[in-house]
Design brief:
With 115 residues, chain A is mainly beta. Helix content of chain A is 0%, strand content 50%. Chain A contains no helices and eleven strands. In chain A, strands 2, 4, 5, 6, 9, 10 and 11 form a seven-stranded mixed beta sheet that branches. A four-stranded antiparallel beta sheet of chain A has the order 1-3-8-7, with no helix packed on it. The mean pLDDT of chain A is 92. The termini of chain B are far apart. Chain B is globular, with a radius of gyration of 13 Å. Chain B is an all-beta fold. In chain B, β7 and β8 form a beta hairpin. The chains are: A mainly beta (115), B mainly beta (113). Chain A binds chain B through residues 33, 35, 41-45, 48, 55-56, 58, 88, 90, 92, 98-109, 111, and chain B through 31-32, 34, 36, 41-46, 49, 51, 89, 91, 93, 97-101, 103-106.
């Protein structure tokens, strides 16, 4: 079965650089969520999209932005990277918009390391 | 504010034991609760989803129960195997905002042969 695809799997950037993370949801899933998991921490919600519109926003820095495209894939853009942005970034998708009766399917994540 | 706690934080057991992992949440107004497994540095694999109207869900050797009124869920793992070694996370979808899964801090399980 198709899963949530995230790219790249690993990314190393220098401070003040820009990074773009991509997420391809499961086919026919129209809702995408982004989470950030720091070392030894639980995942924290960043932002979500439903039908290409921002649905909700969590503790996402102003340096970050995201969007969902017409094919439902989503991109998380991170600018002026800081050392503290080093984390595992997860994307999840669900069908039929929030609230979800079907739970959330997560991708394998993108590990971002800022040096 | 919804808070999710998992006990124990870590558990090390011999193969074959039956295990109970606990998850507590402070606000009973939840839409559903989901249990995940995470291998080191890897993604989150969904194990079981329990809707707020349900009492339990089963998948293979896994059984999850939900007592919404008392704010508790348990994950029962029967006949544990070394391959079960991972971190187990529970996450609740608050009724007022189901976009934001609230995660517990996890139980790190090690099953040794």
């Amino acid at each position: 079965a198709a899963g949530v695809i995230q790219s790249p799997r690993h990314l190393i950037k220098e401070k003040r650089e820009t990074a773009t993370l991509k997420c391809y949801p499961i086919p026919r899933h129209d809702t995408v969520y982004w989470y950030q998991q720091g070392p030894g921490q639980d995942p924290q919600f960043l932002i979500s999209f439903y039908e290409k519109m921002q649905s909700d926003k969590g503790s996402i820095p102003d340096r970050f932005s995201a969007q969902q495209f017409s094919d439902y894939h989503s991109e998380l853009n991170m600018s002026s990277l800081e050392l503290g942005d080093s984390a595992l970034y997860f994307c999840a998708s669900s069908p039929a918009g929030p609230p979800s009766n079907y739970g959330y399917t997560f991708g394998s994540g993108t590990r971002l390391t800022v040096v | 504010k919804q808070e999710v706690t998992q006990i124990p934080a870590a558990l090390s057991v011999p193969e074959g034991e039956n295990l109970v992992l606990n998850c507590s949440f402070t606000d009973s107004a939840i839409y559903n609760l989901q249990w995940f497994r995470q291998d080191p540095g890897k993604g989150l694999t969904s194990l079981l989803l329990i809707q707020s109207s349900q009492r339990e869900q089963t998948s293979g050797r896994l059984n999850a129960s939900l007592d919404k009124s008392s704010g508790r869920s348990t994950l029962y793992i029967a006949a544990s195997q070394p391959g079960d070694s991972a971190t187990y996370l529970c996450a609740v979808a608050p009724y007022y905002n189901t976009d934001k899964l609230i995660f517990g801090t996890g139980t790190r399980l090690q099953v040794f042969p």
